[in-house]
Automatic annotation (TrEMBL):
GO cellular component: membrane
Compartment(s) where it occurs, according to its Swiss-Prot or TrEMBL record: Membrane
Protein's name according to its UniProt entry: Mlo-like protein
TM annotation in the entry: 6-25, 123-142, 148-166
Record bears the keyword Membrane: yes
Keyword Transmembrane: yes
Record keywords, A-Z: Membrane, Pathogenesis-related protein, Plant defense, Transmembrane, Transmembrane helix
Predominant location: membrane
Amino acid sequence: LHVFIFVLAVFHVTYSVITIALSRLKMRTWKKWETETTSLEYQFANDPARFRFTHQTSFVKRHLGLSSTPGIRWVVAFFRQFFRSVTKVDYLTLRAGFINAHLSQNSKFDFHKYIKRSMEDDFKVVVGISLPLWGVAILTLFHDINGVGTLIWISFIPLVILLCVGTKLEM
């Protein structure tokens, strides 16, 4: 049992460090996009006074996908989650929507700093191991007494859930 707890702790810490490192690496590219929003060219091109039909934006075109067939959209969304999860258009659209909903039009709000702070706050909650999770881990360990291979099969459940959630978020 003590070996199990040690291995669980080592993998948990390793996974957490890798997750935060990859997320910060990804967010480093977003910083350039945030800096770009202070330029006059960006402010002129994204003037709220200029009306644009929603269905004509590249953000909407990208998220509508290649087809309206649900099966094909699910397959495209499944593979899209592994490559460029947040594009420049996505970031700038989310930034503009957030500022329009929560702040005045001419504010000098640093959306990148807000996203980074929010990610760190969320990470503190997500990384923690709750008491019910420890209970499930111990019950799973004791359930595998007869060598049925429960540990092998039950480890795939979080992977399947993660892939399904990632696919749904890309749609």
